[in-house]
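TL;DR need structure tokens for one chain.
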Amino acid sequence: MSARKIRVLIVDDSMVIRQILNDIISEAPDMEVVGMACDGLQALEKIPQLQPDVVTLDIQMPKMDGLATLEAVLQKYSLPVLMVSSLTQRGADITFQALDQGAIDYIPKPENAGQLVSAADELLRKIRLAAGADVERILRIRRERKQRQAARPKILPHKAADDSQTASLADKCIALGISTGGPPALSVLFQDLQPPLPPIVIVQHMPPHFTKPLSWRLDSISPLSIKEAADGDLLRPNHVFIAPGGFHLELRKLGPQVKVRIFDAPPVSGHKPSVDVMMQSAAKIFGPRCVGVIMTGMGRDGADGCKAIRAAGGYVFGQDEASSDVYGMNKVAFVEGGVDRQFSLDEGARLLMEYVRKNFLKSSAPLSSSVSASIG
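>> reply
TL;DR here they are.
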């Protein structure tokens, strides 16, 4: 007897996009399209009749837009929803709102049908992940996270000025990798992180056009200066650099300085940008002065990078299962011995700041083997 297929409901106001998604999903042997809807109201009527396992949801629709539809769906059903987002700043901004509201993930809606077909593997992979997700758990995590954030006093962040403390941090680095569930988790982390901190480099798995709005979003809530990385950027304390979607990021040492290199090459560990590419270059340059952070996300990208950081004498924090939307990349890194200490998202900023204060601010000398003992 064959296994039950994943039942998908497609919601999109474009007949062309509905048909393309239908063709891609219908060709997968483990999936079936059980229905299509042209707007949110029609989707709400069809969900109880069709009982889908996954909903793909367009953002911009007549009658009821994607955000309103998502809210209505999640009020009644614990259904995994994948947003289908346009590759624009507005599309990215709304997608981040949808992720905060409870969407499991998103897929970019390219400008033409051919681009969508080329992204078929990613679409099917994300549908399979969504179908296997514990939606009630993820919604609970995000709901509790929003409640905690709402209870915080509203203080506008002041950008950190360079001071004497940062001199000993210029030759240190924090290398962070994250994927599915990343934008909401990064918002929590960077609201709480306070200077002084060494340069921070981030790989968040995202398509082009999404990482710049993500950097603006995080920069608006953080006392650190956060930007989408550009080729040639100089690493500086209290500054955060996010790898641009669709390109790899690696670090290169030029004399006393470390600069960002952005380049195009085939995916590594299934991704571009790749956490492994970034972390391995950071480990090579900074050695024991590098801190790795691996967070929520599917797959195994970053597991080899974490091991490289540890092998070079650095220290690695891994987000724990209880606070992760998807315990995937961080689980692989932990199981394979690439993580020194796991952390809950709520305590991540505090642990990172404590580590920096105890091991980096007291001296610019290379770290000793006592580092693990002082943190563990």
